[in-house]
């Protein structure tokens, strides 16, 4: 359980690192966009090549499709609610035209981070070792996410202390979520674990398509599509070495 918490904290540490970078360094928006696109490609690849393929092998295509779409559907419903509250701007580096939306941004960030961390805990149950591809995917995608969000929160006049508290608490909750995923599902059947993984994959892919890619395209232009493909190929090469 402690190992799961440790890896969950490591994966989400890039949230805090990205936040500190956004607070004290002026990073060109195109660089942020390219990092976000790269992380998007890696995360889509990791979800597809690791989570979905494994779920198909254990549960079949029908159960995998149902749980995957259920995860995507649940994320979409929550995203619709957050969209109305301003949380859809959580990955945006510009000022929120709707005004302050810190709580909605915080809720949206947790919605992204918790399933990612729980899947890390699940990977330890399945193989007794961390899935490094998924860990790398989360780490890389989290950095530009928090960097971009922090810039937007600064423009919304949030204090440095409040912003750092937000990301530090997300990192702590991510560590707890990873250990919870390990502890409470320790005796779950392989079919149930694969179903949870495909459910999480649906939520993650829906998340990057609705939040990360639009921000990357807005700031980086059409070339971000190629950068995302580079990330996808990186995922493929990591999951199928040689």
Automatic annotation (TrEMBL):
Superkingdom is Bacteria
Keyword terms of this UniProt record: Membrane, Transmembrane, Transmembrane helix
Q: Where are the transmembrane segments?
A: 6-25, 32-53, 65-83, 103-126, 132-151, 163-185, 191-213, 220-238
Protein name, as recorded:
ZIP family metal transporter
């Amino acid at each position: 359980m402690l190992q799961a918490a440790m890896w969950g904290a490591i994966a989400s540490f890039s949230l805090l690192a990205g936040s500190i970078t956004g607070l004290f360094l002026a990073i060109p928006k195109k660089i942020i966009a390219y990092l976000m696109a790269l992380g998007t490609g890696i995360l889509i690849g990791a979800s597809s090549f690791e989570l979905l393929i494994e779920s198909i092998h254990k549960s079949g295509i029908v159960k995998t499709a149902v749980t995957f779409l259920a995860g995507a559907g649940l994320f979409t419903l929550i995203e619709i609610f957050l969209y109305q509250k301003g949380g859809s701007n959580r990955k945006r580096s510009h000022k929120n035209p709707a005004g302050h939306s810190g709580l909605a941004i915080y809720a949206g960030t947790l919605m992204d981070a918790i399933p990612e961390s729980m899947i890390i805990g699940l990977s330890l149950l399945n193989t007794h070792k961390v899935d490094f591809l998924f860990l790398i995917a989360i780490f890389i995608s989290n950095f530009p996410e928090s960097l971009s969000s922090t810039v937007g929160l600064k423009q919304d006049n949030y204090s440095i202390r409040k912003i750092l508290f937000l990301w530090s608490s997300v990192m702590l909750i991510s560590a707890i979520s990873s250990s919870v995923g390990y502890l409470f599902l320790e005796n779950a059947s392989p079919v149930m674990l694969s179903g949870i993984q495909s459910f999480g994959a649906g939520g993650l892919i829906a998340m990057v398509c609705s939040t990360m890619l639009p921000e990357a395209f807005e700031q980086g232009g059409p070339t971000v599509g190629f950068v995302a493909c580079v990330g996808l190929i990186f995922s493929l090469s990591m999951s199928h070495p040689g």
